Amino acid sequence: MQFHHHGYVSGDPRVQPAAGVGIDRPAELPDEVDVLIVGTGPAGMLAAAQLSQFPGVTTRIVERRAGRLAIGQADGIQARTVETFQAFGFAERIIAEAYRITETAFWKPDPADPSRIIRTARTPDDPAEISEFPHLVVNQARVLDYFAEFMANSPTRMSPDYGFEFRSLSVADGEEYPVTVTLLHTSGPHEGQERIVRAKYVVGADGARSKVRQAIGCTLAGGQANHAWGVMDILAVTDFPDIRIKCAIQSGTGGSILLIPREGGHLFRMYVDLGEVDPNNKGAVRSTSIEDIIAKANEILHPYTLDVRNIAWHSVYEVGHRLTDRFDDVLPEQRGTRTPRVFITGDACHTHSAKAGQGMNVSMQDGFNLAWKLGHVLEGRSPQSLLDTYSEERQVVAKNLIDFDKEWSTLMAKKPEEFEDPSALEDFYVRTAEFPAGFMTQYAPSMLVSTAGYQNLAAGFPVGKRFKSAPVVRVADSNPLHLGHHATADGRWRIYVFADPALPGTGSATDKLAEWVAVSPESPLAATPEGADADAWFDLKVIYQQSHHNIDLGAVPEVFKPEVGPFKLTDYEKVYATDPTADIFDLRGLDRGGVVVIVRPDQYVANVLPLTATAELAAYFAPLLQPRRQKELSSSVLPEGPIAHSATTPSALVNR
Ligand SMILES: Cc1cc2nc3c(=O)[nH]c(=O)nc-3n(C[C@H](O)[C@H](O)[C@H](O)COP(=O)(O)OP(=O)(O)OC[C@H]3O[C@@H](n4cnc5c(N)ncnc54)[C@H](O)[C@@H]3O)c2cc1C
Questions:
Q1: How much distance in Å is there from the Cα of 138 to the middle of ligand 1?
Q2: From the CB of 64, is ligand 1 less than 6 Å away?
Q3: Which terminus of the chain has a smaller tally of CB atoms within 10 A, N or C?
């Protein structure tokens, strides 16, 4: 974490100084906003947290509940999501309180006595070490709390506006605030009264029964709820030995349980198979009592027993596999002719079973994908066409997820005798581990993602996939650390220059690239607004192949040591060397001749280029950037108080 460069910070450095619309932020919902987010679930809260880093952008997030979510809903946090939490600064804290999944146990009927279950396999959770982060279980409410804290501490001082229900919207293209939204006060002194808010963009993060989705004429297509599960978060006493291990349990009677141990050492969740939903009498399953769910659980666990002492939460969960054909308000025939103004994210555009633990995770990645794009467009960094990539990228991800989830939940619902191969379930689980962990997403070539013509130079950073971090040593202070962990959710592009073998200052290819980046009008850095820190929009880092002892920091090109803040201090934290115990060049298959890796603000690899490909580097960024905006920055986005002295862009604020 970097701070003090705008002057001494004596308090918690995580609390960023208020700036822009965060100074005197009105407590009441304003009549006009840049972005109105509907719904404080994981998708909406991540989007809001990301936008809270853009102090020039007025973002408000409304929620029909009167306050925070207290309990229930999702709890599975895949490793990709923990990586994302790291970018929002709370991975360590949430890991400390969460349950960590390291193994999954499989229980099946004992062939000698099918009325009893026995353990048949135990599989490690992440055998291929896809991520340095763990797979966690923690209640959705806590995840939302952390995002709320992040946005409250951000320059915009954001907090959710509770007690507003979205009713309807209309879009009038061409107006400054084209979306007119009708809300209803659901609590407080104005309860029952309507409220109109105008917005430049609306994000529908309002869950599976989304009214925003309805308002833009999207429908969820696909299978309705077909299979019902009783879900209960309970405190219980049991002689089942794997109660603190994630288990897929299949009984001889045909019922099954997915057991998820929970945070805190005592609580656990059970998804208990309630069978097929009768399409002519859906109410029958929905009214299953908690007593019936517990009785069914005991039946499946036989010969073990479950003595439930406390029920924290329970529900009947019967979500089907459904998907909308577009995630924004642009009809297929209109694509390219108008700007999307309304977006839908998360459960509003895709629903799937709980068994692969995806709902909350995929929803958050929707929010991550969209929010930085909105920030860049609203700040004037990027053209509006960038917004078309949201629906284009995320619809495919959701489709793939639904296909995967269908397969997994069909397997989970099968009776043991229906399997040709007795280990089919655990084999599928191990074979597809990368999918539920969140790492199968690979964005296709677009204005944002290159065609990967130079992929051979960086085999371990597949273009379109998330940037997989690796250890390095920071030259200035010899600290071993993870390169990717310094990519915070600040809306900046990352450009990693993996150097050629020559030392800095020798006229090497790396030195020449640095010179071009620093001075060429074609360089992406040239788009940075006048007066802002040189790294305000692009976080440029260099990684040398040598040991840090051999790198002369003084000889490293200045562009890798930018001046920052009002005192024009040198940022020493962008120059790295390889870790002798884990060489990033070997780990990620990097060409020793050097390579440039461009990473999007949402952590996905966008391009891989040779050090000499300056023309291609310029061409890649050209459509993503507006021409240089000289002295355009409004003083209203400057941070207040002891740190605010020079013009800076929102994401060039302190505490990066
Ligand atoms: C009751 C329930 C139980 C669930 N149980 C599980 C589970 O056991 N396991 C699992 O993996 N997943 C479960 N899920 C799904 C999981 O929680 C979602 O996949 C995930 O939360 C999706 O995130 P989201 O942000 O898209 O939507 P949500 O988390 O659903 O958030 C939507 C938010 O929008 C608000 N909202 C809705 N309509 C309006 C409106 N008109 N105006 C204003 N605000 C509105 C809602 O109050 C809510 O806060 C459950 C979901 C629900 C609703």
A1: 15
A2: yes
A3: N
